[in-house]
Every structure is written in structure tokens, then in C-alpha cells.
What does this fold into?
Amino acid sequence: MKNLVIVDHPLIRRDLSTLRDRRTERGRFRTTLRRISSLIAFEVTKDLHLKPRVLRTPLEETTGHSVSEDIVFLPVLRAGLGMAEGFLDFLPEAKVGHIGLYRDEETLKPINYYSKFPKNLKRSLIFVLDPMLATGGSATAAISFIKEKGGRKIRLVSVVAAPEGVKKVSSRHRDVKIYAAALDRRLNSKGYILPGLGDAGDRTFGTD
Ligand code: PRP
Ligand code: URA
It folds into this structure.
């Protein structure tokens, strides 16, 4: 699991518990997913490259900073959308691509139904956002697709990861660092993470 970084903070643990709690209703689930994503974003962007920027305060000229890298957020539909909002709270100028994947309920294999990416993926630092890394099929497929379109600098950001998913992504994409708020125990026979938080897309959008 050397590609995996667990992002730990008291507020992340608190929010993760709210997400896990089956009594958390849709509105609170959504706002909590957005906030925990911002907290995670703070950590996973801490090595962003900056360039100097000369500016004037009300008193004098000084040198500040601006982000020098092209940033792309790439939420995996649907559940990744809730994370994108939290990341955009920090970096509203980032470009956003979308990739639509769902797991076939029988085979658990990802089915791709949509994609729209910004140009110049090759030069960009890309954050793939998906709260659940279960079998790893969706994340592996999403990253392969991004690489086919030219993406090179890719990080995968999840909220809850299963060991099975971390292993799969790490073996297929050794260059991709994986960030998550928690590494859970295992998958159940239907491919759900234990203890997990249930179906993130359904809980976010009320389709359960
Ligand atoms: C969920 C989740 C991930 C995927 C993870 O999406 O948001 O994309 O499952 O599972 P995996 O690691 O085994 O591929 P889902 O297929 O439920 O689609 P949805 O977000 O549209 O509900
Ligand atoms: N997708 C989810 O939303 N939850 C899981 O536990 C596994 C896959």
C-alpha cells in the first residue's frame, strides 16, 4: 500500500463518521461530503507549485504567490460530483472534466457512458475524484482513459478505500498516488466496502 496516503485530521474523522452513519439524511450527507472533500483538498494540494506575483497592499508593493500549475478536477459521475464542489471551494479557477462510469451490478465491471475533458491534459495536474474506491475497477478504468487522452500527472482522491481497490489501482497505475480519509476492512460479496458508508451516489442524490 505504498501508493496510499491516509489524510487524517480530527475534522475529517468527525465528518467521515457523519457520512458513515445510516441516520444521516441526504441534505446533511451532501454538505458533509462537500466539507470533508475541502478538508482533504487542503492536504492533497499542499505541494502545489507557486509562482511569485508582485502586488500592492494599501501600504506598499510586495511579492505574493499564485498557483503556477494547470489544475484539473475530474469527478467520476455521479458520486464524485459532491467532492468536486469541495475542491472548487479552494480552487475555483480549476478546470473540471467529467467521466461517467457505473458498475454493472452483476459483474461489478465499470461501464463508461460519458466523458468530457479539458484540453492540454498533458500539462495539467489532474485530481480524479471519487469518494468510493471499492474493487478499484472504476478508478482503474478512469485513469486508463485519462492517460489515453494524454493525462500524465494524476492523483486519485477518495474518501473511503478498500484494500482490494488500492491494490488494483496501484498495480495498474504505479505512478498514481492515492489519497483517502480511511482504509476500510474489506469488500462484501456485492462489492460494497465494509464498514463503508453505503452507496455514495444513491445517498447523495436520493436514488436509493
Ligand atoms: C460507485 C462509486 C465508484 C464506484 C466504486 O459508483 O462512486 O465510482 O462505485 O466501485 P469500484 O471501485 O468497485 O469500481 P456507482 O457504480 O455506484 O455509480 P453511481 O456513482 O452513478 O451511483
Ligand atoms: N460504491 C459505493 O458507492 N459504495 C461502496 O461501498 C462500493 C462501491
